[in-house]
Amino acid sequence: MANDSKTWRCGKYELSFDRPRIMGVLNVTPDSFSDGGEHFDPDAAIEYGLTMLDAGADIIDVGGESTRPGFTPVNPDEEARRVLPVVRALAKEGAIVSIDTRHVAVAKAAVRCGASIVNDVTGFTDPKMVEFVATSTCGVIVMHAGEVAAPTRTHATVQLDTSAAAFVAEKAREAAAEAAREAEKPARRRRGKLLGEPKTEAKLPGGVVQPSLPFGDPEPAAELAAEQEAPAVEEAAPVAEAAASPESAPEPSDHLAAMMRRSARREEAYVPTSQLRRFTLPDSAPIMRRVMGFLSDQARALIHAGVSRDRICIDPGPGFGKTANEDIVIQRETAKMASLGYPLMCAVSRKRFVGAVSGVTDAAARDAATFGVCLGAIQAGANIVRVHDVAGFAQFLNGYWAVAKPQPRRAFVAVGSNLGHRCDNIRAARDMIAEIPLTCVSNCSRIYESEPAYETRQDAFANAVIEIKTELAPLVLLDELMKIEAELGRDRSKKAKANGPRTIDLDLLWMDGETHGGKKLRLPHPLIGERDFVLVPLEDLMHDPARFFRYNGVEVKEPEDRVGHIVGELGRM
Q1: Do 386 and 358 contact (CB within 8 A), yes or no?
Q2: Whole-prediction pTM value?
Q3: Dist CA 2 CA 296 (whole Å)
């Protein structure tokens, strides 16, 4: 299940999986399969990324090259121009940003701009990409992209004829074929590199062998047709010489684009009634051997190259070179992939096979079916769910998780007031927090008086910190706290000063296992380390809060450098 002990280290962040994590898809492209062009403008992309964070995304996956079937490859310079402003802006807002790229130059630039994860659709088969991530601290996502069906060869129908005339004719044909083969040998030698060249394997630092790209073998039918339709002997030699000539050699094709084109043709040509079968789906064993074998091999290659195991996540790559039947087989074997021990991603959002099983043709209308597939994956052990509709899936997941997974977690809420009866306001807020669904108050600090911070021309504040246990998601809990503020008379309109006088102020400071960025909520609270009126009350609830938050990556200032210093004690809660 998703609530296991795996953790994923991604640069300065560490993601725990006591609940499934949501990755929001942000395509800064004109041609992605379901949202192409919607966020192509950098400002629109940044705004949409922040919206997904406020809707519940834990990670934003930014991509500048569509990898849909039939896509047009994008050069690294253009891809970088699309994604880098978006990565930089989202990282500045505290987001965990993933860069979806297969180009090492783009990955390097994105990590310098603040990306914490490299999501490589080619599964780190480029030794240069492996060398880069081995020297960084970012998280990595190893994805399988390639055909998983074993190659099948077609056989010509053979008819037997036992007549003497047929025997003589057969002998004549054999003799003619032998003469043709003898005459063709020089030509075959000249084009040997093109016909029979074995695949080479690159070596990484330390002697680790890097497998070839997992994009499948050339289509066997095409090879067979080429052999059967060989030109006459007198025409073959000039053709072979031209093919072997460097000047006339074709440019190397994009392996991923070629594989996705083959995948689309396979899907279009597939007719399930064209042959009789005993089972509704193909045998899972050969499919999973190829998928899990590749993921395991690539993960081990990364570890041998110097990437720590807790930085690696795996993704079976639904839709990349796979038919609908094969994708369903792979999703049904989620538990086996989870047993490899790495965080496991479910990236099925709006894919073709989701449309096939739901009967929905329009990709953008497949979100409900996507949620169903994702739920099955979560129940079988998937840890991260990559979706387009973050708001819808967050609502779906929160509802499911609330009834299916009892999971109380500790959190701290700072409470302050400097209008009206300050201590009574704080006690009223405590009582109302205790009434929030799936939440209880477990401890309270004393109430302290502090100097005003940031806006100094106002009355002194009364401050406290409340420790709670809650089963709500952080953004849902924050909404409940905002409701309490409104009920107690907090003015959050634009005319009110941001740090001015207030009846009550509730800040969610920290929540067990949660890191979050965005405009609406930042966890841990970005200003916790400089607020004396928060750190002193926290000393009533934990030993050495400064050390605790420094361990959690928060910069904590020395007492003399803080704001809102405590000047006295006003009593107990």
Answers
A1: no
A2: 0.80
A3: 20
